[in-house]
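Weekly modeling sync, notes
Attendees: AB, CL, MP (scribe)

Item 1: holo prediction request
CL wants a bound-state model with adenosine-5'-[phenylalaninyl-phosphate] before deciding which constructs to order. AB pointed out that an apo prediction alone won't tell us much about the pocket. Agreed to run with the ligand included and paste results into these notes for async review.

Input as submitted:
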Amino acid sequence: METAEFKGQVADLQARVEADFLDITSLDDLTLFFQRYLGKKGELSVLLKSLKAFSPDEKKVVGPLIQKVKTKLNADFVAKRDTLELAVLNEKLKSDWIDVTKHEEVLTGNLHPLSKVQRRIEEIFHGMGFEVADGPHVEKEWTNFDALNIPASHPARDMQDTFFVKTGSDDPHENSVLRTHTSPVQIRRMLERGAPVRMICPGRTFRNEDLDATHDAQFYQFECLLLDEDINLSHLKGVLERFLSEFFEKEMKIRIRPGYFPFVEPGLEIDVWFEIPGKKGKWLELLGAGMVHPNVLKAGEIDADKYQGFAFGVGLTRLTMMKYEIDDIRFLASSKQDFLGQF
Ligand code: FA5
């Protein structure tokens, strides 16, 4: 190629580069522009390679011409890239900004009242040296009834009250029920770890009952079992009074009546005096209790000559209703935010 022709090509290239450069409005345009002129196979690179054909003297003339174009082109390219990238960033900032001073109403969750009450109960009993145990919802018929000295003829086993899961076997270890109370955990705890025992067990219980404002088919109880040497009813009364006073944050009055539960002897029903400000106070039936029956100790493989103790089972759901003045048990199973948000 003649130097004149080369000069002409450089001038032509420069004119097109300048025209095309003016059309660049985006980073995509810029990439295409780069590929067309500056990339490995770009026009400028091809022209630069053709320099090889010139003599050293000719190179001295045409070399600087094309170098000048290349230097300018590179500088323009970088400047344009910076400008376009900044524009993209500014656009993004416009749409992404956050006003950190703006006050937004944020809906936060809270614990369910039953969970709050359960945690508080656990705290209080931990403070008195009790452990928290757990048991399954689907329980062996044996553990739920037989081991607790509830004979096969007892009305509590009636289809009206118990949700049977598996029936038909003569062996109560083979049949299962939805546990009707938390008392079977007493047996589990005795068999697992022996005496002495100081445990509570909060959990869900199930009964096939007529439902009303104070009775649900699923409700929560918590069981308390204390086995040791020389335990008597005054220990039961002391633990209960201490628990109730801490739970309700005031001195609570209790009334002890004789009651019948096959798994305790003597058996007791315990009521608490309950007052809502502005309303008449009343005795509320809250729990069943008593000294653990020797047959139950036997089922739990405890040496009844050495150890004895008390047990009680409290309606945790009822305790929750008292604490928060909830007058219908069905609210506790609802997912209504107006209700749940209050706690
Ligand atoms: C029992 O379940 C015994 N296992 C308690 C017990 C344990 C006695 C250890 C002695 C020794 P009862 O059926 O009374 O007892 O139930 C205890 C409490 O559970 C009741 O006082 C009541 O507060 C609550 N409760 C019973 N049925 C329901 C129900 N359908 N809905 C809500 N709470 C209930």
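Recorded for review: The longest strand covers residues 218-228.
Action items: CL to compare against the apo run; MP to circulate these notes.
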